[in-house]
């Protein structure tokens, strides 16, 4: 069996550096520097005091396969994930064909296993064809090969309250979670950008915060009555944080994610009309990002999810209204969190492990991810150099598409190694 | 000046220079039999309209022709997506074919900004002839030219912009330009037709038109598009007309010197009563003729100087 | 003491003083009167050039002076005043901006337009005298001839220049010259007028 000795790593960035021996896919031993006896065949990874975290888990990724393999494949997306420090990702259902049946979810699972760089878990659609009309075969997908744990029509909102009620009720029998893309479509007809002074001045049709908040409030109430679990995708507004606080206070079983871009970027980006900044929900205003950061630190927002959304050049190199919404995120997420949460003192690295690994794994019900850094636990790990910086270049990212809004930006924290069940998947910016 | 994309950020001196040039062009051409200047001989101007607008396109075309530019009209039916060719490819093609200036009307806000970015490495200038709900800078300039002519000056004047401000690129361009030129602007509209965040604009707002009229030097009536009525922005055309239509009774409430402007096309009987539109107080036909001179001035400032 | 090498301030010399400018304009006025026969019979007095009635088959109309902005314009007005003073005939004066007709627009930053002011009687069938401060390449005058043809059809066009500094690039010559100044191409001749510059003078600078 392959063995790997990580020397001089600091678990959660705390305490003195230790050595970690990985064998048979688990953490075999943790000991003081130089204290561990590793077989001579063991590979040695000098961590040089870097931060060791459980492998990251992304509840919200668009891998575009099947359907848009010109922008991303499960293989290329897996590389991006491994390079970004992820050991598990959830692939959203809005593919072509839609992952609304066990055939497609099984296919996605198998393609992920073939790539072998990250655990790819398919998300199942809530409704057939994401059409919002009738429930997809959630039970078959949940009990099938892929064992689907999360259902979402992401990209579209399950807007019909009756359908959402039924989905929540039905999910309770399967032990799965419904992840809602909260957007009241009647309030966002033609919407292009955060409804605010900038959009008004620049002539974008506004996407009002209330369109998100009203659905989150409604769904929290529906989840409470159904006794169901609800997950809220990409929270973007101050008001949604208020609603979530209120619902959690009432004991509603609701969790929520925030994207790195909503923690960093604002609608100031609208000034350029460059659709690389177009995303749904839209980039919000400065008070929103302040509140989202605080809520992530406080736990009102449970976790960070990338909403990694590759798009072809021609779908971004056009007028804003014609562009597709979404931006790359897998390889930049950890750095954005380091920038917005760690540098600001809102989270320490243990906190980062919580919001990027442990909580997402709990929400998705993954038993082998987001585990403590302890002997006997699965060796899904990421090593981070917290002091290094790097410059983002869209063309150099592993995704086939290059639509990153961070192009040219200098970001803190570099992923130096990722381990999936004890095997190095990425090392020093390269797929191992 | 390389492009004219907005009046937002257009400086006082720059705007005044364009208006002065327009005045001088108007004087130069007044009463002439041959309205043709050789200034832009050999320059190629292409109008690219992704939305129908006969009046604006014709105004630009006349402006170019009176300056002796070669004017070519590209009518782009439907969106670039519908046509199959991207806006970027169309722009690069026209530039490579020799366009010195592309005048673009587009339903997407910011499309002229995108064009300007794609053409930054070329010698092609971009003029925004109206983009989505964003701006229509030459309309604001021609309105300012008309106000200067009628009122003598703009500084310190109080100007009401009435109607569908929310969707109006004319209103946005006028707000910026009039503020730059020192006017006080009041936006009068029902709450549903005022933009979000308008409190951060250099304007005041009012819901009630009648109370504003006595102190106004000029009133700009905006067109209310029929499709807005279906969206439920106000209960009915009748109720809108009663509350915000400029009728003869309201005309009488304005000071004697006050001017009535409308960017056209007008919906007579809706936002403006026919006798008001035809009254000597209305400067609507002057707006149209000033439009040609202002657009000549814009082309002059973009194309007559040395290449940037 | 010799000026520092390579940093010699261009020497500036006065070609005409304020008094010279006044005398020169007066002399040019006399030349115009002579050449356009304004010193003829007394009935060509004020008002005789009024073209109010088209069927008036009276004597030829007095010339129209059109200054080329910026400094040609006040020169034209001064010249007209002198002509009236000496001949008793009121001569209309105005301005003709040639910017829109220039052939060198693309070589310089965008220029603001200057005033064009064609006197009410127009220029058809009259002698037009273009007035400029300095005659150099002749290109401005060429532009002025084009501009003029868009305003009407004069009987004849003449040219008056306060200074002719030579170096013509076109077959153009002045009918009235205040002062001929041999120059090199690199020298700069500037006319100052009280109306635009606060004082009257003609200066030459550089070598």
From TrEMBL, chain A:
Gene Ontology biological process terms in this record: 'de novo' UMP biosynthetic process; purine nucleobase catabolic process
Protein origin, superkingdom: Bacteria
Record PROSITE patterns: DIHYDROOROTASE_2
Residue numbers annotated as active site: 307
Cellular component GO terms held in the UniProt record: cytoplasm
Cofactor: record remark: Binds 2 Zn(2+) ions per subunit.
Cited InterPro entries: DHOase, DHOase/Allantoinase_Hydrolase, DHOase_cat, Dihydroorotase_CS, Metal-dep_hydrolase_composite, Metal_Hydrolase
Residue ranges of every copy of the Dihydroorotase catalytic domain listed in the record: 49-237
Co-factor requirement: Zn(2+)
Catalytic activity: (S)-dihydroorotate + H2O = N-carbamoyl-L-aspartate + H(+)
A Pfam short name: DHOase
EC number, as in UniProt: 3.5.2.3
Residues annotated to bind Zn(2+) 1: 60, 62, 154, 307
Assigned protein family: Belongs to the metallo-dependent hydrolases superfamily. DHOase family. Class I DHOase subfamily.
NCBIfam families in UniProt: PRK09357.1-1, pyrC_multi
PANTHER family: ALLANTOINASE
Protein name stated in the entry: Dihydroorotase
Natural source organism: Prauserella isguenensis
Gene name, Swiss-Prot/TrEMBL: pyrC
UniProtKB/TrEMBL annotation, chain B:
Top-tier EC class: transferase
Enzyme Commission number(s): 2.1.3.2
Reaction(s) catalysed by this chain's protein: carbamoyl phosphate + L-aspartate = N-carbamoyl-L-aspartate + phosphate + H(+)
Biological processes, Gene Ontology terms: 'de novo' pyrimidine nucleobase biosynthetic process; 'de novo' UMP biosynthetic process; amino acid metabolic process
Alphabetical keyword list: Pyrimidine biosynthesis, Transferase
Entry GO CC: cytosol
PROSITE patterns given in the database record: CARBAMOYLTRANSFERASE (PS00097)
Residues that coordinate or bind L-aspartate: 83, 169, 223
Pathway in which this enzyme or protein is active: Pyrimidine metabolism; UMP biosynthesis via de novo pathway; (S)-dihydroorotate from bicarbonate: step 2/3
Aspartate/ornithine carbamoyltransferase carbamoyl-P binding domain residues: 2-149
Span of domain Aspartate/ornithine carbamoyltransferase Asp/Orn-binding: 156-302
InterPro entries: Asp/Orn_carbamoyltranf_P-bd, Asp/Orn_carbamoylTrfase, Asp/Orn_carbamoylTrfase_sf, Asp_carbamoyltransf, Asp_carbamoyltransf_Asp/Orn-bd
Residues where carbamoyl phosphate binds: 55-56, 105, 136, 139, 264-265
UniProt-listed NCBIfam families: asp_carb_tr, PRK00856.1
UniProt function note: Catalyzes the condensation of carbamoyl phosphate and aspartate to form carbamoyl aspartate and inorganic phosphate, the committed step in the de novo pyrimidine nucleotide biosynthesis pathway.
Subunit structure: Heterododecamer (2C3:3R2) of six catalytic PyrB chains organized as two trimers (C3), and six regulatory PyrI chains organized as three dimers (R2).
Protein name: Aspartate carbamoyltransferase
Gene (name only): pyrB
TrEMBL record, chain C:
Record domain Phosphoribosyltransferase: where: 62-180
EC numbers: 2.4.2.9
Coiled-coil ranges per UniProt: none
Gene3D superfamilies the record matches: 3.40.50.2020
Functional note: Also displays a weak uracil phosphoribosyltransferase activity which is not physiologically significant. Regulates the transcription of the pyrimidine nucleotide (pyr) operon in response to exogenous pyrimidines.
PANTHER family: BIFUNCTIONAL PROTEIN PYRR (PTHR11608:SF0)
Family: Belongs to the purine/pyrimidine phosphoribosyltransferase family. PyrR subfamily.
Protein name listed in UniProt: Bifunctional protein PyrR
């Amino acid at each position: 069996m392959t063995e790997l000795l990580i020397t001089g790593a600091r678990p959660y960035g705390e305490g003195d550096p230790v050595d970690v021996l990985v064998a048979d896919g688990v953490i075999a031993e943790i000991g003081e520097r130089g204290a561990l006896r590793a077989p001579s065949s063991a590979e040695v990874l000098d961590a040089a005091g870097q931060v060791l975290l459980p492998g990251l888990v992304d509840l919200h990724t668009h891998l575009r396969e099947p359907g848009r393999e010109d922008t991303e494949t499960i293989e290329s997306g897996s590389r991006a994930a491994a390079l970004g420090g992820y050991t598990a990702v959830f692939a959203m259902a809005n593919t072509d064909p839609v992952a609304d049946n066990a055939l497609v979810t099984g296919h996605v699972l198998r393609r992920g296993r073939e790539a072998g760089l990250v655990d790819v878990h398919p998300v199942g659609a809530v409704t057939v064809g994401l059409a919002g009309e009738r429930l997809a075969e959630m039970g078959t997908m949940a009990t099938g090969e892929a064992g689907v744990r999360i259902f979402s029509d992401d990209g579209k909102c399950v807007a019909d309250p009756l359908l959402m009620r039924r989905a929540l009720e039905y999910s309770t029998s399967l032990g799965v979670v419904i992840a809602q893309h909260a957007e009241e479509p009647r309030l966002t007809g033609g919407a292009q950008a955060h409804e605010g002074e900038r959009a008004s001045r620049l002539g974008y049709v506004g996407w009002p915060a209330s369109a998100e908040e009203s659905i989150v409030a409604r769904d929290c109430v529906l989840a409470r009555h159904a006794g169901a679990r609800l997950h809220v995708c990409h929270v973007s507004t101050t008001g949604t944080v208020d609603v979530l606080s209120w619902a959690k206070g009432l004991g509603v079983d609701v969790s929520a994610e925030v994207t790195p871009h909503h923690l960093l970027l604002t609608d100031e980006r609208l000034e350029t009309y460059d659709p690389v900044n177009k995303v749904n929900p839209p980039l919000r205003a400065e008070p929103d990002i302040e509140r989202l950061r605080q809520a992530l630190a406080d736990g009102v927002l449970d976790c960070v999810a990338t909403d990694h959304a590759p798009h072809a050049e021609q779908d971004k190199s056009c007028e804003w209204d014609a562009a597709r919404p979404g931006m790359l995120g897998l390889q930049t997420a950890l750095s954005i969190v380091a920038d917005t949460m760690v540098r600001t003192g809102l989270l320490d690295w243990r906190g980062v492990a919580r919001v990027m690994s442990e909580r997402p794994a709990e929400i998705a019900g993954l038993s082998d991810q987001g585990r403590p850094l302890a002997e006997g636990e699965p060796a899904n790990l990421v090593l981070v150099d917290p002091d290094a910086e790097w410059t983002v270049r869209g063309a150099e990212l592993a995704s086939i598409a290059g639509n990153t809004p961070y192009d040219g930006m200098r970001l803190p924290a570099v992923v130096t190694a990722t381990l999936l069940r004890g095997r190095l998947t990425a090392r020093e910016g390269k797929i191992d | 000046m390389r492009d004219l994309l907005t009046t937002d950020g257009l400086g006082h001196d720059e705007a005044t220079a364009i208006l002065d040039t327009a005045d001088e062009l108007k004087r130069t051409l007044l009463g002439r039999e041959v309205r043709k200047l050789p200034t832009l001989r050999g320059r190629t101007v292409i109008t690219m309209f992704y939305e129908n607008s006969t009046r604006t396109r014709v105004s630009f075309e006349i402006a170019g022709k009176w300056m002796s530019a070669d004017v070519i009209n590209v009518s782009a039916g439907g969106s670039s997506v519908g046509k199959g060719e991207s806006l970027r490819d169309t722009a690069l093609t026209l530039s490579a074919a020799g366009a010195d200036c592309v005048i673009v009307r587009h339903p997407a806000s910011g499309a002229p900004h995108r064009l300007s970015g794609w053409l930054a490495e070329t010698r092609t200038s971009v003029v925004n002839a109206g983009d989505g709900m964003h701006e229509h800078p030459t309309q604001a300039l021609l309105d300012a030219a008309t106000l200067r002519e009628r009122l003598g000056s703009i500084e310190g004047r109080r100007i009401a912009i009435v109607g569908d401000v929310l969707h109006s690129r004319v209103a946005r361009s006028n707000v910026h330009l009039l503020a730059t030129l020192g006017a006080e602007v009041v936006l009068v509209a029902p709450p549903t037709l005022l933009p979000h965040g308008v409190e951060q604009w250099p304007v005041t707002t009012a819901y009630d038109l009648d109370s504003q009229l006595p102190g106004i030097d000029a009133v700009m009536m905006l067109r209310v598009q029929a499709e807005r009525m279906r969206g439920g922005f106000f209960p009915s055309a009748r109720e809108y007309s009663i509350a915000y239509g400029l009728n003869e009774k309201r005309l009488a409430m304005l000071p004697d010197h006050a001017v009535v402007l409308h960017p056209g096309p007008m919906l007579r009987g809706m936002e403006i009563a026919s006798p008001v539109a035809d009254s000597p107080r209305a400067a609507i036909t002057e707006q149209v003729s000033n439009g040609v001179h202002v657009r000549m001035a814009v082309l002059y400032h973009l194309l007559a100087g040395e290449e940037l | 003491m010799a000026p520092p090498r390579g940093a010699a301030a261009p020497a500036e010399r006065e070609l005409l003083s304020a008094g010279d400018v006044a005398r020169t304009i007066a002399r040019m006025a006399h030349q115009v009167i002579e050449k356009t026969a304004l010193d003829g019979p007394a009935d060509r007095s004020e008002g005789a050039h009024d073209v109010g009635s088209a069927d008036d088959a009276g004597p030829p109309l007095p010339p129209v002076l059109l200054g080329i902005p910026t400094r040609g314009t006040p020169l034209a007005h001064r010249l007209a005043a002198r002509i009236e003073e000496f001949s008793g005939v009121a001569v209309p004066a105005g301005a003709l901006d040639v910017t829109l007709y220039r052939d060198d627009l693309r070589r310089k930053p965008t220029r603001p337009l200057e005033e064009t002011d064609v006197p009410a009687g127009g220029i058809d069938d009259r002698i037009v005298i273009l007035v400029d401060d300095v005659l150099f390449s002749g290109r401005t005058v060429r532009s002025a001839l084009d501009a003029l043809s868009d305003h009407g059809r004069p009987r004849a066009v003449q040219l008056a220049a306060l200074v002719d500094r030579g170096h013509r690039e076109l077959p153009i010559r002045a009918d009235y010259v205040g002062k001929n100044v041999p120059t090199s191409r690199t020298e700069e001749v500037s006319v100052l007028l009280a109306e635009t510059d606060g004082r009257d003078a003609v200066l030459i600078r550089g070598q």
